[in-house]
Amino acid sequence: MLTIIKNRLEQGYRTCNYPKEKPAVFPRYRGRPLIQKTADPDMVKTCADACPQNAIDVEKKKIDMGRCIFCGTCERISKGEFVQFTGDFEISTATKADLVTDGNLPSLAQHAKQHFKKLFGRSLQLRQVSAAGCNACEADLNVLATPFFDLARFGINFVASPRHADAIVVTGPVSRNMKTALLQTYEAVPEPKAVIAVGSCTLTGGPFYESPEITPGLDTILPVDLFIPGCPPHPLTNLHGLLTFFK
Amino acid sequence: MTPFLEITNGKNVPRDTVPHLDFDTFCDNALHIVKNGGKVVHFFAYEDQGTTKFLAVLRTDILLAAVCDAPDSYPSLTKTCEPFHMFEREIAEQFGIRPQGHPWLKMVRYHENMRKVPDVFNNDYTKEIPGNYPYYQVDGDEIHEVAVGPVHAGVIEPGHFRFNCIGERVLHLEIQLGYQHRGVENLFHKAAAKRLPILAENIAGDTTIGHGLCMAQAVEALASLQVDDGAKIIRTIALELERLANHIGDLGALCMDVAFQVPANYFGRIRGDFLNLSLLLCGNRFGKGLVRPGGVRFSLDDDVRKILDERIRELKPQVEHVLALIFGASTVRARFEGCGRVSKKDADHLGLVGPAGRASGLVYDARRCFPTEQYPHLTIGENAKPSGDVYDRARVRYDEVLQSIDIIQSLIDKPIDTLTVEGDIPVLPPSCFVVTVNEGWRGEISHALLTDETGGILRYKVKDPSFHNWNGLAMALRDTGISDFPLNNKSFNLSYCGFDL
Question: Does the distance separating the beta carbons of A211 and B187 come in below 8 Å?
Answer without folding.
Answer: yes
